[in-house]
Amino acid sequence: MKNTILITGCSSGIGLNAARGLRDRGWRVFAACRQQRDCDRMRAEGFDSPRIDHTDPDSITTGLAQVLEATDGRLDALFNNGGHQLSGAVEDLPRDGLRAIFEANFFGWHDLTRQVIPVMRAQGHGRIVQCSSSLGLVSIPWRGAYAATKHALEGLSDTLRIELRGTGIDVVLIEPGPITTPLRKKGIAYFERYIDWEHSAKRAEYEAQLIPRIYRETGKDKFELPPEAVTEKLIRALEARRPKARYYVTVPTYLTGYLRRVLPTRAIDWIVTRI
Asked: Which of 169, 183, 93 shows the shortest CA–CA distance to 135?
């Protein structure tokens, strides 16, 4: 019997590459997407593709039910992935914008994870892999909302890993730095919806720093890697007999992990404001 995995956020980027890579390794992949048209596209590619929108609790329940019906109640692994970006200064983040990004990047993931755990408990094994970020380790300017969701994910996942010891269920964090995905482009809609930058006390900084970055094609970031780099670490996390608690991806993640261990917080603040 093939190993089975449910991957969310498979319309593009990390999720799409992971779905294809694991299928090539013989896994049965359930490649979930937020929008039905993307599910249809994935099905045309030969995938099982339930619709799961992390902001829609009903879709989480029904999507998982479809997976379990197809596998006779078995699921070997879950890869929580997807979500969106909301760039802007923390002082300009409205409550609704912060709530929206937490629904997409954190609460929906937790909801799906909670529903998967009883299945894995019953079968005596499972892997829950969370796609975190280097911003779950060290924050940088303009990314406060996204960093907040990833810091929350890190804390919750660390606790869950400890609590599930002895159950046969492993909880793993993958922490990418810059990866070539549409995340920045897709984040423009959320920026325009929630950030009133023109009336911000930091307007000049928006115009000089953030606006050019999110609206202009500036090429790849330094040390940016393709989604395959994440898939490689995901395969290790899934197929290792005893997986690590964390897998770093890209030089910036290794660097931020090192800086957290050796430098005081104020020194890290000074460094990230000059990147």
From this structure: 183
What does the pLDDT read at residue 97? 98
Rounded mean pLDDT, 97-106 = 98
The end-to-end CA distance of the chain, in Å, is: 48
- Residue 181 confidence (pLDDT): 93
H or E stretch at 128: strand 126-131
DSSP string, 1-23: ---EEEES--SSHHHHHHHHHHH
Per-residue confidence at 42, pLDDT binned at 50, 70, 90? very high
- 91's tokens: 């002082």
Burial-class residue 236 by CB neighbours within 10 Å (0-12, 13-18, 19+). middle
Sheet holding 169-176, edge to edge: 28-31, 4-7, 77-80, 126-131, 169-176, 246-249
Active site residue 247: no
Tokens of 143: 């990314």
Contacts 24+ apart (CB under 8 A), 21-27: 21/228, 21/231, 21/234, 21/235, 22/231, 22/234, 22/235, 22/238, 23/47, 25/235, 26/2, 27/2, 27/3
Going by C-alpha positions, the residue among 161, 162, 179, 183 that lies closest to residue 237 is: 161
Identify the pLDDT of residue 221: 82
Catalytic residue among 146, 194, 206, 248: 146
pLDDT tens digit sequence for 11-31: 999 999 999 999 999 999 999
